[in-house]
Amino acid sequence: MRRFHPAWAVAAVTFIALLGAAGFRATPSVMLQPLHDEFGWSLGTISAAVSVNLLLYGLTAPFAAALMARFGIRRVAMAALLLVSAGSGLTLWMTQSWQLVLCWGVLVGLGTGSLALGFVATITGRWFVKHRGLVTGVLTAAGATGNLIFLPVLSRIVESDGWRTAALTVSVAALGVVPLLWWKLRDHPADLNVPALGATEIEEKVSPAGGAAGNALRALRDAAKTRPFWLLAGGFAICGATTNGLVGTHFIPAAHDHGMPQTTAATLLALVGVFDVIGTIASGWLTDRVDSRILLGAYYALRGLSLLTLPSLFAATAHPSMLIFILFYGLDWVATVPPTVTLCREYFGAAGPIVFGWVFASHQFGAAAAATAAGLARDQFGNYTIAWYAAGGLAILGAILSLMLYAGKRLPLIEESVRGATAPA
């Protein structure tokens, strides 16, 4: 009989942590109106906490990956959940808007950012050789699944028992995952004297000699000297702009402009999350079998074509053509993650998870820029048409950037930021 490999247990608890982190990060969206009603704060003031959360969610990723390399995955993940628990729980006693920014913006942003896609890249890079792409897809899908599970539940709690009960629920749930991570999450296969899944030899465990912040910045410095980094970062910035930034933020008001009820538009956006789970797992499976550059080129090109057709699909009802768009776009939503993680590992070796953290930061900056630009376009022109067309063109540019990774001579692995400053643990 085959012995159950502990990598699967590590992946399982990682999935649970990511599932919760996604739900915890999205919770403020169901608390905006209740906070406004109770404290009288403007929605702009409350949204500032969400903006800080989003910014830190992206910027924390590379530093968290460096901390995991320096101090271990388990310690950093447990500390991240404790931050989320503290940030959510402390809101029960807040009286000023700056306290909301501190709790939900800073503490929860740092905590969930430490459990973002850099966490995924670190886990799959250490524990999996075989099925690496598939596991990356499954763990990435945990984000969409977390939103699907938590948002409806927390929304009902807010309606029935108030926002404080919802905040307390998040705090207790985050704290409850900590013992599970301590029990089953391990930093490295060598800790259990086994090779990574699919490997034949036990890889020597190393720890970076420098500080985590220095290692993260060093990885950025070394990667920024290479062409692949800018192509990957540029493509992923476009990914963020055309998903979270544009569709995630502006699809509902754009549909409402055409007479569609807000509840119907929100349901359609929720369906995107359902198909996202399927598409991301399928993308992970394909990443194990097809060149990642081809996959990225195809994903971005198809996304661009779909966005170019979207302005003609809006109507007062959810007709079949719009449903086809939702299905297609949902399958492609974050399908780009598994091949991007794989290419970071291919080009940057042991530094891949940290470099991917910086690539992921570009995703969040792209999302923030698109969210603002689309809003300005709506104010200026009275509709979102130019925003959809611009996003379609950007996605096609993303396809070109991905295919440009084929051109020219491949550079050697850029590992100095991790390997050059490491010593046996």
UniProtKB/TrEMBL annotation:
The keyword Metal-binding does not apply. The keyword Membrane applies. PROSITE patterns: MFS. It is found in: Cell membrane. The chain crosses the membrane at residues 39-64, 76-93, 99-121, 133-154, 166-183, 229-252, 264-286, 386-407. Residues 9-410 form the Major facilitator superfamily (MFS) profile domain. InterPro entries: MFS, MFS_dom, MFS_trans_sf, Proton-linked_MCT. One of its GO terms (cellular component) is plasma membrane. Pfam families: MFS_1 (PF07690). It is a multi-pass membrane protein. Keywords: Membrane, Transmembrane, Transmembrane helix. One of its GO terms (molecular function) is transmembrane transporter activity. Coiled coil: none annotated. This is Sugar phosphate permease. It comes from Actinoplanes philippinensis.
